[in-house]
């Protein structure tokens, strides 16, 4: 009986430690706060920070042809480590110390919805 109670307690504790999945509405909020400034609310790369003086063109997430070339791991890496980590612009900041793993996974899924495509 003591072993059963220990297992039940351990399972309950593990369920409290595991973070809940990020829901679609929360993911959209994360996208709007962290990504839309450059990538735009619809992901076309036309956010309010992008002016004629902006040094690069942010990726257009609605371009299924280009987005299909990227794996989910590629997307995850650039979100976590920023543009320079994947030989892209330093204008893309690293979010690895800001966003949780669940938020990053949510963003990858959200980008796949925006492009209506699968990864390479």
CATH class: Mainly Alpha
CATH topology: Cytochrome Bc1 Complex, Chain D, domain 2
The assigned CATH architecture is Orthogonal Bundle
Q: Which segments are poorly predicted (pLDDT under 50) over 5 or more consecutive residues?
A: 3-19
Number of extended strands = 0
The chain-level mean pLDDT equals: 86
Quaternary structure classification: single chain
CATH superfamily: Cytochrome c-like domain
Structural class: mainly alpha
User: Could you say how many structural domains there are in total?
Assistant: 1
The helix content is 40-55%
Run of helices and strands: HHHHH
Instruction: Estimate what percentage of residues fall within beta strands.
Output: under 5%
In this structure, how is the largest beta sheet organized? none
Q: What would your notes on this structure say?
A:
The protein has 120 residues and is mainly alpha-helical. The chain has a single domain (22-115), classed as Cytochrome c-like domain (Cytochrome Bc1 Complex, Chain D, domain 2, Orthogonal Bundle), CATH 1.10.760. Helix content is 52%, strand content 0%. Helix 2 packs across helix 5 (101-115) and helix 4 (72-81) packs across helix 5. The longest helix is centred in the first third of the chain and has 16 residues, at 2-17. The radius of gyration is 18 Å and the shape is globular. The model is unreliable at 3-19 (pLDDT under 50).
Topology:
Elements: H1 2-17, H2 24-39, H3 64-68, H4 72-81, H5 101-115
Helix pairs in contact: 2-5, 4-5
